[in-house]
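Recap for those who missed Tuesday's class. We walked through two folding examples back to back. For each one, the amino acid string is listed first and its predicted structure tokens come directly after. Nothing is annotated here on purpose, so try labeling regions yourself before you check the end of the notes.
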Amino acid sequence: MTIWTITAICTGTARAFNGAETSAIAKRPREGPVQVLAEGLAPDEQADRSVHGGPEMALHLYPLDHHVWWRGIIGDHPALDEPGGFGSNLAVTGLTEEMVHIGERFRLGTALIEVSQPRQPCWKIEHRFGHKGMVARIITSERSGWYFRVIEHGEVSAGDSLERVSIGASDWSVARTFRALVAGKASAAELEELAALAPLSPKLREKAAIRRASATP
């Protein structure tokens, strides 16, 4: 399958979240066409721009398939009924981390987007759902979701297609990349490959290079 349907396009605004902390993790579905620009959907916000957002993390996709899995782990939760419950901008069923590769390109509505990196989970997921241990579950299960960069601006609406138009680094699925760089299960040779993998975000290429420099040959 190379074409999927966008169930929802979701955006959010930064709101009070935990004491002085703010977060835009709760993304809500939008109606009608939404612009897809270099920094992501317009408008959409990220509370902490040091770790979220920017051209290399312009769009986030967390598979809807995982919502079903999470119900078996934490039980029913209102956020699991929301297509943007994990901070996802794009709600899609039938597309997961093992099926998508770094550098893969997709036509999203009239925009062109490219897979840039896995998502690294943070404490805000556990706070949103009120369950400890979710970050560890994401790491062990490799249900991370991933980010896209925007190659060509355009527009997208719920019900539009997400069409794969080119294969990326076929040896480097999002799941394998996550396993190597977030779960920390990379060999020295894998780290060397990742450090040189041009479509991977610069931040993760640098991370791979630093780890390779300190790894045992």
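Example two. Treat it independently of the first, because the proteins are unrelated.
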Amino acid sequence: MSSLDTFYYIVFFVFGALLGSFGNVVIYRLPREESVVKPRSYCYSCKTQIAWYDNIPIFSWFILRGKCRKCGAKFSFRYPLVEIIMGVLFALCYHYAGISWSLIEYLLFVFGLVICTFIDLDHMILPDEFTLSGIVIGLVGAALNPQREFLDALFGVLMGGGFLWGMAYLYWIFTKQEGMGGGDIKLLAWIGAIVGWQAIPFVIMSSAIIGSVVGIVAARKQKAGLKTVIPFGPYLALGAILYLFGGQTIALWYLDLFLPGLS
């Protein structure tokens, strides 16, 4: 690894951690329909604004031992966790895409996925502000980015959204109950707009496997059996990230195994 590469890894990690700090604000405020810009970050217990030196990504939480400097209220470990995750993912985006048009798209993509993941975990909703705008941005990016093809992105939207919509419709026919939220449908369509239709089978399969394992564990803990409800968005997001960072080879091999010539 060259010294220049090391420099870029550090830059993108720091940039990601900074955006992770802002992402924490979005995760908390957006579902509550609060402004994500004003007021500045503050302690939700004593309402005191947090000084800039107490708002340094990752470090401030550990320096303050996860507590508000004024009132001593505890801050969740999620704050540095989101910042670390975002920093690592941004560095990985650089590793896999280099300095390119695709890098810009990947950075926007993982930023949105991380925020949607934690909002879904908290509230079991996937905000349209990210999913619908993500579809539009993904299609526009495919039209402008010489490294991507627009039809791949368009088919990704139709295949991703269409598959989950069809599954949800069949589930409703047989059970008369809603089994898949509309947010999940839009999320997979957004994923298809960014990574293309070839990624959809891999994302569905990997997210289903991981989600099933987590669901079984949750069902045993909650003792609710098949009635256990878990958000599916985080596993779709994880499947998309796995595809971005090394899963393409597996996905294309799997696709070529069943549909030779299409990959």
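Answers for example two:
Residues 127-263 form one domain.
The longest helix spans residues 3-29.
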